[in-house]
Amino acid sequence: MKIRNILILIMVILLFVPILSHSQELKGFVDLQTSRYGFKNASGKIIVPAKYNYISDFHNGLAIVSLDKKTGCIDKTGKEVIPLEYNSLLGDFFDDVVIYLLDNKYGILHKSGKRITSPVYEYATHFAEGLAVVKKSKDGNVLFIDKKGDVVLETSYTQAKSFSEGMVAVSATTNSLGIGKWGFIDKQGKEIIPPKYERVESFSDGLAAVSVSDYFTDDWSGSRKWGFIDKEGKVVIPLQFENGMFGPEFRKGKAKVKLKNREFYIDKTGKEVKE
């Protein structure tokens, strides 16, 4: 009898776990009268009053919020666990850390609120695949740092995007206008694809969009041509698409492209497919 009662109790608990879990899901809402943001739970109950100018989604139990040009973080009870004292926070605490901006300098901040580094960088990007791009001076070369702030990769490049699928786009200034061509390196700093493209996007689904058009053409007129390369640098889809300043990107095997004023989707062979 006791065993039966225990089994019934376990079944009841299991039935209510999804409900309890669902009730912890918070979604942002806006107060139309004040244009401020807050959070409600799944049943519509206000958990965090609408008092912020900006809110992010919750990641790793925290949401980034801003009020009167100051930024910090709250937990799911609305408690401000990271004081609103920063100019900006870059990232979503996926790696337990973010890049913070304070008085025009960047540093690393742990989700506990502890500053891992002081604000010492002139430039920084959010963490991606465990690494962030930083510069110690505006005219200096980019460095890659880990979550502890240790430099793991020094480069001879002046610009870099964030790592994606083990590769990162990099560029070196080649003329007085600060314009350089782009290529890709791996996490060891090995140059996999030499800088020869005017514009590139990060790798996604194994392919990266690249362009070789002139910087001074009217990009929005369709003069810039985009195509796709693989991780060996081979052009797998010819440079023909007219997506303007920003290249197309593959997501779940499809990319939205523009050609002759018509937008449509293609697969990774370049064949047109349904959305």
If you had to describe this structure to a student in words, what would you say it looks like?
There is one protein chain. The protein has 275 residues and is mainly β. Among the domains are: 26-86, no CATH class; 87-149, Thrombin, subunit H (Beta Barrel), CATH 2.40.10. The protein has one helix spanning 2-23; strands spanning 27-31, 36-40, 46-52, 54-55, 63-67, 70-74, 80-86, 88-90, 97-102, 105-110, 123-124, 132-135, 143-145, 151-154, 159-160, 167-171, 182-186, 191-197, 199-200, 208-211, 226-229, 235-241, 255-259, 262-266, 272-273. It has a 4-stranded antiparallel sheet with strand order 4-5-6-7, with no helix packed on it. A hairpin with a 4-residue loop joins strand 1 (27-31) and strand 2 (36-40). It is globular, with a radius of gyration of 23 Å. The termini are far apart.
What are the SSEs and their pairings?
Layout: H1 2-23, E1 27-31, E2 36-40, E3 46-52, E4 54-55, E5 63-67, E6 70-74, E7 80-86, E8 88-90, E9 97-102, E10 105-110, E11 123-124, E12 132-135, E13 143-145, E14 151-154, E15 159-160, E16 167-171, E17 182-186, E18 191-197, E19 199-200, E20 208-211, E21 226-229, E22 235-241, E23 255-259, E24 262-266, E25 272-273
Antiparallel strand pairs: 1-2, 2-3, 4-5, 5-6, 6-7, 8-9, 9-10, 11-12, 12-13, 13-14, 15-16, 16-17, 17-18, 19-20, 20-21, 21-22, 23-24, 24-25
Please tell me how large the radius of gyration is: 23 Å
Which of globular, elongated, flat, extended, rod-shaped describes the shape?
globular
Count the strands? 25
Unreliable spans:
12-23, 216-222
CATH class label of the domain at 87-149: Mainly Beta
* Helix/strand/pairing category: mainly beta
CATH structural fold name of the domain at 87-149: Thrombin, subunit H
Tell me which CATH architecture of the domain at 87-149 applies here: Beta Barrel
Specify the helix fraction band: under 10%
Along the chain, the helix and strand elements come as HEEEEEEEEEEEEEEEEEEEEEEEEE
Strand content: 35-45%
Rounded to the nearest angstrom, the distance between the terminal CA atoms is: 57 Å
**Which strand order spans the largest sheet, edge to edge or round the barrel?**
4-5-6-7
The total count of helices amounts to 1
The description of the largest β-sheet is: 4 strands, antiparallel
